[in-house]
Amino acid sequence: MTLNNIEIDTLVVGAGQAGVAMSEHLSKLGVPHLVLERKRIAEAWRTGRWDSLVANGPAWHDRFPGLEFDLDADAFAGKDQVADYFEQYVRKYNLPVRTGVEVRQVVRNADRPGFTIETNQGVIRANRVVAATGPFQRPVIPAIAPKDDGLHQIHSAAYYNPEQLPEGAVLVVGAGSSGVQIAEELMRAGRQVYLSVGAHDRPPRSYRNRDFCWWLGVLGEWDAEIAKPGREHVTIAVSGARGGHTVDFRALAHQGMTLVGLTQSFEGGVARFQDNLAENINRGDENYLALLDAADAYVERNGLDLPPEPEARKRLPDPACVSNPLRELDLAQANVTTIIWATGYGVDFSWLQVDAFDANGKPQHQRGVSKEPGVYFLGLPWLSRRGSSFIWGVWHDAKHVAGHIATQRTYLAYRDREQRTADEQQPSISNVSTFGAH
Ligand SMILES: Cc1cc2nc3c(=O)[nH]c(=O)nc-3n(C[C@H](O)[C@H](O)[C@H](O)COP(=O)(O)OP(=O)(O)OC[C@H]3O[C@@H](n4cnc5c(N)ncnc54)[C@H](O)[C@@H]3O)c2cc1C
């Protein structure tokens, strides 16, 4: 069925968790809307993650309020279980999602309010557009990547399992949650692994019988509105793999992984690393210890009965690769056949041709409400708070954005006395055009 000539109040682009949350809140507020998804619901969880990936947070935390996972509350849902969860959510709330429809262009109408939306299945008109196309759309590989056809190079988004890689050692660049988990999986599969470690936060998986998600919640960290100065681009190294464990770079090195500093350049088959490995690891420790201190203070202040855990403060000795770090690596000599770039993602809003971006193409908005009236963003990192790009956080941002839309509709539905009188005389005519598929 073509979508040609459909008119809808609000169009939501993307049916990942952000689009699903948005649709739930719009439904609750009675806003007619449609969600268009170019592939399948929660496609990123289906095909954009490696095979063994589990959620970073336990099932009781990484979910929406309206549905629990069919799992032990402290277990970590596998990536397909997360995708199934959002499919189930759409069914439970009977949300108007159309899959297999790509939005190709959105432009503001010149001669009437609203937007014209071009899709691969026809042209739609909408009063409002919510961009819920994800925080991590375009894998980013830095320009320093060597131009060497002999090396197998992939982004972490294209990594699925150790078997897909050619034999040989692997250099993983980036030690956030993706890089460190992939590096550990490869090491456990018998690969020689070099892991390039930059600045990172490294919370304990759990402390005093509480997961770090709980600690970040009660300490107000998920709700932090801005990143600490200088830590805006700092990645967080956590893992739910194998039941969940604290990421400990020294332990990984003692098990055989070679840690190196930030990757600086490649030249003539030689990789060079910055001399900052120990500093990065020590700053990660500081972040780890700061959370333990804040947790202890919280326990004391509130008189909680949570068992002390002094062993969490023990530190392994520095492995040789930290005390005497490699500054360069001849890739052929080290038999490195693969580089995995766990270097993050960018966004791509080329389809959204409206006045909602700064000169660098960065969305301009306040808690998701764009400076271009009628355009909204959802799911972006730090949209309103630290938790904004995560499962539980996007649900709360969606509530705010849906509330803004409902309020705007109230303003636009207002009729002054003269208009109301005219309406009463001609009851069949209404100026409010909010019909749609819902
Ligand atoms: C490796 C990894 C692990 C993560 N683990 C966790 C975790 O454990 N817990 C957690 O809370 N968060 C986690 N996140 C962060 C976040 O939850 C996910 O990135 C999540 O997928 C973001 O959801 P979203 O709906 O905002 O975006 P996406 O899931 O990316 O959804 C956007 C959707 O929009 C669609 N789309 C894009 N462009 C168009 C278009 N033009 N027309 C139509 N459709 C379009 C896409 O197909 C996609 O389905 C993780 C992220 C990564 C990268």
What is the CATH fold-level name of the largest domain?
FAD/NAD(P)-binding domain
The CATH superfamily of the largest domain is FAD/NAD(P)-binding domain
Shape: globular
**Class inferred from helices and paired strands:** alpha/beta
How helix-rich are the residues, as a percent range?
A: 25-40%
Q: How many H/I helical runs?
A: 10
Q: Outline the low-pLDDT stretches.
A: 430-438
Biggest sheet layout: 8 strands, mixed
The CATH C-level class name of the largest domain:
Alpha Beta
> What is the mean pLDDT?
95
- The span between the termini is 16 Å
Total domain modules: 2
Strand proportion, as a percent range, falls in 15-25%
| Structural Rg | 25 Å
Ions, cofactors and other bound molecules: flavin-adenine dinucleotide
CATH architecture of the largest domain: 3-Layer(bba) Sandwich
Number of strands: 24
Protein name: NAD(P)/FAD-dependent oxidoreductase
Enzyme class: oxidoreductase
Pfam family, one: Pyr_redox_3
Keywords: Oxidoreductase
